[in-house]
Amino acid sequence: MAQIQGLAAHAAGAELLPFHYDPGELGVQEVEIAISHCGVCHSDVHLISNDWGISHFPFIPGHEVIGTVAALGAEVRQLERGQRVGLGWQSNSCGVCEWCLRGLENLCPTAEATCVHRNGGYATRVRANARFVVPIPEALESEPAAPLLCGGVTVYSPLRAQGINPSSRVGVVGIGGLGHLAIQFARAFGAEVTAFSTSAEKEHEVHALGARRFVNTRELKAMKEAAGTQDLLLTTVNADQDWAALLQVLRPTGTLCILGVPPSSIAAPAFPLISGIRGIRGSSIGSPCALREMLDVAARHGVKATTESFPMAKANEAIAKVKKNKVRYRAVLAN
Ligand code: NAP
Ligand code: ZN
Predict the structure, then answer these.
(1) 295-307: per-residue pLDDT in tens?
(2) Of 28, 47, 213, 306, which is most buried by a Cβ count within 10 Å?
(3) pLDDT at 236
């Protein structure tokens, strides 16, 4: 097999540099994807900085991949060469544990991530177990669909798990890559959506995405007025937050669902949890089944990422812009 070219992080926080590797023989269950597009998720930024202590350098980031099937392992029957497919955060699981058998492969204790201890999608090609390579519906264009492969399924899964419906009030905290997709999916579920943001200039844009209201989380008065209004708050923020203030925004029995990864532990007061029987939970990406369902919903309900396109070779520029919270709303690298 030919070498795979890409851009790799060689040390924590360093700029990506051109890199190539020999992928070896294709496994019987593996698929090789010729990449056309790859989204720049904030998790790539965390991995490049080694914020989570799990990065293994050098590695090629990227886990919001769309491309075409370039090669198939001998035992892969469900895909065809040349077919348009996507790959997200997860690229393998054991397939035999309780969680894999329940169709919750994202909870498999030996789950493998596309760009942790392996090389991801800021590259010409990438490989994964065929169970994690999903067909892309015809109706979805590749660039605005690429961010659905991680960001999309991450916000879709908790909306589905929490039974969001037209009676629900859903707040989305942090209107970035994940957040702008969360607004659209929550609307597709019929919920009334409120955007909670630190960026006043996003106000008119969140209405166009489907949010009814905008709350500036930096304004004390606005946060006080929002008290007791939301059934579900999805936080997609990668920074520490005023958790007590966010709990106050929940109605009784409401849930604060943590999707973004803040640097510190979450400190929350007990009383709003006890008195309103409120809950705090997390959610992690989604299973391959959820990915397929989410893509189908996106295709039928017109959910798509608002993107800023960069050539693959300019990945460092895209990352710098993500770090400054300047991208509207997802950078996508194109080959
Ligand atoms: P992103 O595009 O950079 O968006 C993050 C948003 O958070 C920003 O647009 C901004 O929204 C807000 N924000 C940034 N800095 C802030 C600060 N200091 N204070 C308050 N708000 C701030 O990132 P993303 O790709 O959506 O990813 C967000 C987080 O989700 C990351 O931590 C990522 O690792 C995590 N993630 C988790 C999963 C999972 O499975 N749980 C999957 C994918 C990603 P406003 O301008 O509106 O305030
Ligand atoms: Zn991601």
Answers:
(1) 999 999 999 999 9
(2) 47
(3) 98
Same domain, 23 and 112: yes
Does the beta carbon of 47 lie inside 6 Å of ligand 1?
Answer: no
Per-position DSSP letters for 171-184, written without gaps between them: EEE--SHHHHHHHH
Give residues with Cβ within 8 angstroms of 193, minimum separation 6. 170, 171, 172, 183, 186, 187, 210, 211, 212, 213
**What are 85-137's pLDDT values in tens digits?**
999 999 999 999 999 999 999 999 999 999 999 999 999 999 999 999 999 99
272 CA to centre of ligand 2 in angstroms = 31
Ligand 1 atom with the smallest distance to the CA of 43 is: 34
CA 187 to ligand 2 centroid distance, Å: 22
pTM for this predicted structure: 0.98
- With a cut of 70, say whether residue 1 has pLDDT above it: no
Distance of CA 160 to the CA centre of its chain: 15
216, 237, 294, 332: residue to mutate for ligand 1 pocket, most atoms within 8 A of CB:
237
Same domain, 139 and 263: no
b/e code 76-91 from CB counts within 10 Å (16+ = b): beebeeebbbbbbbbb
Label residue 268 exposed, middle or buried (CB < 10 Å: 0-12, 13-18, 19+): middle
- Provide the domain limits for residue 170: 152-282
Q: What is the pLDDT of residues 269-295, one digit of tens each?
A: 999 999 999 999 999 999 999 999 999
Same domain, 316 and 274: no
**Got the DSSP string for 285-299?**
---HHHHHHHHHHHH
Cα-based distances in Å from 200 to 203, 319, 323 = 6, 23, 18
Is the domain of 318 the same as that of 269? no
Same domain, 38 and 139: yes
Considering only CA atoms, which residue is closest to atom 44 of ligand 1? 43
